[in-house]
Amino acid sequence: MQNIISAVRDAVKVCSAVQEHYLISNTKSSGDNKEPVTIADYGSQAIICRAIQAHYPDDAVVSEESGKQFLELVSAEQRANVLEILEEVLGEKVTEDEVVGWLDFGKGKSASRTWVIDPIDGTKGFIAMRHYAIACGLLIDGQIADGIVAAPGYNDEGALFYTQDGATYRAPLAEGTGEKVSISDRDTPSEFVVVQSFEKAHASKSRMQLSREYAGLDNAVIHELDSMEKYALVACGDADLYMRLPREGSTYAHKIWDHVAGVALVTHAGGVITDVDGSALDFSQGDTLPNLGMIVSNGKHHDQIVEAVQKVLAE
Length: 315
Hints:
By secondary structure, this protein is α+β, with helices and mostly antiparallel strands. The chain folds into 2 domains: 2-129, Fructose-1,6-Bisphosphatase, Chain A, domain 1 (2-Layer Sandwich), CATH 3.30.540; 189-314, 3-Layer(aba) Sandwich (D-Maltodextrin-Binding Protein, domain 2), CATH 3.40.190. The protein is built from 10 helices and 12 strands. The strands form 2 sheets. The protein has a 7-stranded mixed β-sheet, sandwiched between helices. The chain has a 5-stranded mixed β-sheet with strand order 9-8-10-12-11, with helices on both faces. Mean pLDDT is 94; it is low at 27-31.
C-alpha cells in the first residue's frame, strides 16, 4: 500500500492548498460556494489515480469524478487552478489531457482488484473547516481487502490510517510509519463513546438515539463529526460505536466509496460491522450497497444494538 499511501498524502497537500487559498485567504468563498470542493475533488482524485495507474496498471477503479465531468462541468478557470495546484504538489508540469486520463483510469474495467476512491469525504466539513477525509480502499473479488483514510482534522493535528498485513495502523499525516492500533475493550455501556454524522440529512439521529436507549447506551458520550473519520475513530479505539440508520421513508442507496476504506480499517482492527439487521455488508454489487445502513462497533453489545435497532425500525 506504500505507493498509494504516498499519493493520499499528496492528495492531502492538494486539499490543504485549496483550503488555504479559497477558504482562509479568500473570504468570498464560503457558505454554499462549491468552487473549493470542485477544485480539491478533481485534484485529489487525479493524484491518487495517477499513482494507481503507475503501479497497478491492470487494476480497476471506482470513483466519484470523471474526465468527462472535468471537461464539461468544470470552468476553464477552475481546470487551470487544478493544474496549478497539481504542479505545485508534484513538482512537475501537468497537462489537462493527463488529468483527464488520470481521472478516467480504470473506470469500467473488469478486474479482480478494484480501488475505490473518495477524494473528499465530508464536503460540508471541508468547506466549514471542520473534519473531512480522503479515502482509498481496495476490493479483491468484491471483498474488502485494504484501506487508507487520511483525516486532517484528527486530534487537531491530523493522522493517516491504513491497513497492512491484516492490521490497522495510525501514522502522522505528513510522513512517517505508523503504530498498530486496535478497537477499544470498553464494555460498560455508560463509558461507551459514540460517533455520528454532523449533518442531520445523513442519517436519522432520532432513530439512533432511541436505539441507544433500547440498547442501554443512553448515557454514552456522543461526538458528531463529518466524514469517514468516524470509522477510523472506532478502529483506533477512540470510539466504540458508529451507526448509520436510514431516515423514515428514505430510499438512499449508499455509495461504496463512502465506506470501503473505513470498513477495512475497522475490520483489520478487530471491530464488527453489519447491516442494521446484523447481516454482512455487500460490496460486490457495483458502486452502490444493497444494505439499508451500518452498525459499526468494537463488538461489545453488537447483537444487543442490532436487536434495539430492529425494534426501532419496526416501530
